[in-house]
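One-letter codes give the sequence; backbone shape is given numerically. An example follows:

. . .
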Amino acid sequence: MKIFEKRRVRKDLKHTVHSGMVLLASRGDLLSEDDLALLNENIGKAKEALKSGCADYMESSGDNLEKVINQLNPQRPMEWLHENFDVLVVAISVAMAFRAYFYQPFKIPTGSMQPTLYGIHSIACDPAEVGFLDKKPICFAKWIFTGSIKKVIRAKVSGTVNFMSGSGSKKPGYTPVVVAGYPHYVPNDSLERNTLPLRLKGGVANGASVHKGAVLWSGTVTTGDFVFVNRWKWNFMHPQRGEVMVFSTKGIVDLQQGTHYIKRMTGLPNETLQIKAPNLFVDGEMVTGPGRLGLIAKMEKIGDWAPPYAGFNPGTPQKRRHQQLNSEEATVTLTDSQYYAMGDNSKNSFDSRYWGSVPEKNLLGPATLVYWPFTSHRLGWIK
């Protein structure tokens, strides 16, 4: 045992001597003459102890040298962070550059691109189906994999139910249900729009009186698809009709500023567009492709799990200053720096038909890949 103990002491002393030499090389010019002499003295004694081979002498010399090192170079709080700060800065810079110039993550908030891409969507269920495993924090494990979580939304106060417009919601993809001034957010598609009075699927009706704690709506909520946007492609080639485009809303009247939208690129510069449901016409020719544009016009399915496309439809007449293509006779002609954006779910898409074209300077890039939720039918390349 003494042999092994002596080896350990020798190894520890060598490490301490190395630390003293590093301190001497890195901060020797900053130390006072007295401190420098003290450090050199103890390094010398430690080296003598190594030559002597005496375990007690090595141990005492090592302890003394270590005390001097800690005295001259005390450990700072969060030392590991200071030591790795440069590495962290470089890693963060690389990640930010990758996001800014190559592939940027983007979340689909609404259902305007269904069934190609899904925003926040839901299925109503009985509150009794929301069990222990659906409560926080256990439910997060399921959510990380599937993006789905069961919710029971109860009234915070007693009062009359008032459905507000989802377009003004602070939470994209959700509609505010207000009770006595308190908003309760439910998924946009939980609203049953073909009934009077309006009501939530499996939930309360607009104008109903409820007591505090009453269930307004319950169901499974699935987050919108998360996609990567290719930031470099359009720097080297022109955008193509049929690509799923992501663009900035900056300067586009009637759109919330400081955010991004995602739609299908249906019109290119200098083209004239017209819609005769379910077909899209460009310069008088019916569009049959590429890719999904043909499926949309034919109102076909992209899978057994998906509803069929609803075709291309004129916009619903509304009081919008830039309303376009609101009838089958209407046409719109783009300038040499404008693009036309339409949602694949054109009956329920707030797009260029209502607020006009997208300036070329606003284009961010094409959405290329759905990377989450992992159980999404749409996981993979976007068409």
Q: What stands out?
A: The radius of gyration is 33 Å. The longest strand covers residues 363-372. The chain has a mean pLDDT of 88. The domain at 2-75 is CATH 1.20.1270 (Substrate Binding Domain Of Dnak; Chain:A; Domain 2).
